[in-house]
Amino acid sequence: xxxxxxxxxxxxxxxxxxxxxxxxxxxxxxxxxxxxxxxxxxxxxxxxxxxxxxxxxxxxxxxxxxxxxxxxxxxxxxxxxxxxxxxxxxxxxxxxxxxxxxxxxxxxxxxxxxxxxxxxxxxxxxxxxxxxxxxxxxxxxxxxxxxxxxx
Length: 151
What we know:
This protein has 151 residues and is mostly beta strands. The protein has strands at residues 8-18, 22-32, 38-42, 62-64, 70-81, 94-100, 112-124, 130-144. Strand 7 (112-124) and strand 8 (130-144) form a beta hairpin. The model has no long low-confidence stretch (mean pLDDT 85).
């Protein structure tokens, strides 16, 4: 998945986890301390920050301008590759996906989905900071709902 940042991609799989819907900043206005430029950046979760400046292309420190955020709802889901696409002795690919606003609360574990989205890099702070690839969904098709189980 490395090197795919910004690429639009379709992905088909089975939802294996659907987190709680949260409210937070989904688009922020940032100032790059290196070149002092100001730009908007779509966030892939509450701890996400830009990794490079879209104007000068360099990394560094990015300060959120607190008077200009856009708030919305987001939900993390994890999607596993389809069982019939996994070869013998292979592990399934598990993809972290962020759903925003009207795409939240549509799926549950076991649903067969097709996602269209944009690859983004995000920073996970725990247990120690590291970059992860996330698909930011822009479209979601439910091919088959998981059967309802009554316990």
